[in-house]
Design brief:
alpha+beta; 4-stranded mixed β-sheet; 3 helices; 4 strands
Amino acid sequence: MQIKKPHFIIKNKFQKGGLYKNLLNPSILSDICKKATGCSEYTSYFDNKGYNKGRLVIINYKDKIIYISLSEIEIKGRNSFFQSFSLLNIYLKKI
């Protein structure tokens, strides 16, 4: 029996322009995948509909969904930390 690789689903567009596909190169995704699942091999899909809320990355693996909110390198606003609460909202709607 072959186990499927972890699968990333990422909304590709930043709210204010830019693409996550240009930022999240294979090395970064492999590192995230290894830390989240124990596997470094993965598949990915960058969704171009809408924009990414909360710097959200989703991994589907072994019938589970892993929600990851990526940190910013530099905090620019007083409410920057609260932008990732959309991640919590998405999760709570699922349960």
